[in-house]
Amino acid sequence: MNLNVSASLNIFKLIAKPSLCLPHATVATFDDLSIPLDKAFTSSSGDRKVDIKAVVLDKDDCFAWPEKNDVYEDYKQRFAALRAAYPGKRLLIVSNTAGAMSYDTNGRLAAEVEKATGVTVLPHRVKKPGCGQEIMSYFREHPETGVTSPAHVAIVGDRLATDMMLANMMGSWGVWVKDGVVPLQQKSIVSSLSFKTGLVCDRCI
């Protein structure tokens, strides 16, 4: 079992402030993402200006089948469009499996995902939702992204208590992918809770 200590510890913050797990925008599936992502956050009146310079993607049950490295077939066109809109270091995969040093100890999974997607996978010591500092350190190391503030970053993921909580704790923008790759009817009660909250574990299927 791939336990998530970071999520367990941060549950106390969530209890104190439940709004930490609320997304700023919601889409049904990865294929419904607005590109560029600024569109997802800009109000119809135009009074809210959002400037997304980089995107952080969750992997499992977001754009890929859990424990698989390839982009889900139905999402390949949208994934390619996202890469074109946020080229190079402006698109980053942050997963609690691939790249999580406590689980992917030798970096093998991260390397496989990078080969399959063409996108950098962040090696991180602290799992989501607690790895905000590591994400911002990555962007500071790559000034060509134009990221100078967490407000320039959008977090895209399917879990409220890891991905969306990460976005809110960072001061970034969160896009919740409500329906993952795995159909809800194929998930057990435990795995469904895990995939949508991230509080149980990171691999329960």
The string of secondary-structure elements, in order, is HEHEHEHEHEHEH
- Share of helix, binned: 25-40%
Major β-sheet profile:
6 strands, parallel
Structural class: alpha/beta
Tell me the strand percentage band: 5-15%
Low-confidence parts lasting 5 or more residues at pLDDT below 50? 188-205
Distance between the termini: 10 Å
Secondary structure: number of strands: 6
Output mean pLDDT.
Answer: 87
Mind telling me the C-alpha Rg?
Answer: 16 Å
Shape: globular
Strand order of the largest sheet: 1-6-5-2-3-4
Number of helical regions: 7
Could you explain the architecture of this structure?
The protein is α/β, with parallel strands linked by helices. It is 32% helix and 11% strand. It has a 6-stranded parallel sheet, with helices on both faces. The N and C termini lie close together (10 Å). The C terminus is likely disordered.
Q: What keywords describe this structure?
A:
alpha/beta; disordered C terminus; 32% helix; single chain; 6 strands; 7 helices; 205 residues
